[in-house]
Amino acid sequence: MSEWQRFSSAVELDEALARHVAKRLEGDIAARGAASLAVSGGSTPRNMFRQLSRCDMDWSRVWITLVDERWIDPVDPDSNERLVREHLLQNRASTARFVGLKSPQSDPEQGIAAVSRRLEQVPRPFTRVILGMGADGHTASWFPQADNLGKLLDRAGAPGLGATDPVTAPVLQSRGIIIHVTGEEKRAVLEGAGASRAPVAAILEQDTTPVAIWWAP
To answer: What is the pTM of this model?
Structure first.
């Protein structure tokens, strides 16, 4: 089951979500000495990232990684790492420890082992995982044509390759998952995900990690 948090505007949502995530990170720093956050790309989280980057905490104890990443150079305009560096790893958050999902190998099948080793340094379970969602119901590079969702959803599993060969982190290894979306179209997709069997339904219907949907028109 998932919990809905509804807001009247994207601005209100971004501000509230940044405060919420910061509070959870601070809680894990106090309790465990470190915190970790896995985030998604796209245009939706950019303002929230900027809000979060200004929150006052010991960012040197925060590890940040990606939910998924295309197998492209980190300076490429489509790179999620580039987006995170430009919008989240700024201001107070500039001292956070970032772990990317792209290794120097040209082939993702060859590079996935190096990515797995790199991710081992990130404290688990993640304090929070923030997912986006496409209008077709895909999330974390799990597209409607993906045939390996079972492996990608293994809570004990390692990073895997999603559809079209992006790397996808083990998102269920988290204290909580947040689906961050805006717009009536995506609200309808989420509400009908079970019936349509959209990939996001795999997140909504699993019972190992709490899920909250943060939405605004």
So the answer is: 0.91
217 residues of the chain, pLDDT tens digit each: 689 999 999 999 999 999 999 999 999 999 999 999 999 999 999 999 999 999 999 999 999 999 999 889 999 999 999 999 999 999 999 999 999 999 888 888 888 888 889 999 999 999 999 999 999 998 887 665 455 555 555 555 556 555 445 678 888 899 999 999 999 999 999 999 989 888 899 899 989 999 999 999 9
Q: Is the N-terminal amide bond of 166 cis, ω within 30° of 0?
A: no
Instruction: Please list the alpha-helical segments (H only) found in 54-183.
Output: 80-87, 108-119, 149-152
Confirm if 16 and 7 have CB atoms less than 8 A apart.
yes
